[in-house]
Design brief:
Blueprint: E1 4-9, H1 16-21, E2 26-29, H2 35-43, E3 49-54, E4 60-73, E5 97-112, H3 113-118, E6 136-138, H4 141-152
């Protein structure tokens, strides 16, 4: 049975539209520079599903991705030209990891953060905890199903 996750991205940097336009609607989820989020990446296995979440402006879940390649070293950590460069990362000790994800579904309507906050079934969701800022986090199966149901409905109020 697949585990469920939430992957946050700033839509100005990489949006669901960018993923939809990527070759094979697949991309490497790189640039994670938080150890706890990195550890979650390393727990992901093929077939795990994640909510694709736009953060910053109009935050909300906009679709679902599936993990199509398990954790491997994030090459951007060793690239001095990358915004995600980390001089501590080496070939022997890569430090940072990434997974590949493929677009599985775009929601009919975004599920705004404000709508999630109003849902009693999401009260325990990590995303909604005060001070929770991780870019990658686990999501319970019931929470995942509820967000998906909301996203498949045609109308959502912010």
């Amino acid at each position: 049975m697949p585990r469920h996750w939430l992957l946050k991205t700033e839509p100005g940097c990489f949006s669901i539209d960018d993923l939809a336009a990527a070759p094979g609607q697949t991309t490497g989820w790189d640039g994670v520079r938080n150890f706890q989020a990195r550890n979650f990446l390393r727990e992901m296995v093929l077939g795990d599903l994640a909510l694709f979440y736009h953060s910053v402006t109009n935050p909300g879940a906009v679709g679902i991705v599936s993990v199509v390649r398990e954790a491997y070293p994030d090459a951007t950590a060793r690239d001095p030209q990358s915004d995600h460069y980390d001089p501590r990362a080496t070939a022997e000790n890569p430090l940072w990891f990434m997974v590949d994800v493929r677009l599985a579904e775009r929601f009919a309507a975004p599920v705004p953060l404000s709508a999630m906050r109003r849902e009693p079934g999401l009260a325990g969701m990590e995303l909604l905890r005060k001070g929770s800022r991780l870019s990658i986090m686990p999501v319970g199966p019931e929470e995942f199903a509820l967000v998906c149901r909301l996203g498949r409905e045609a109308s959502q109020k912010a």
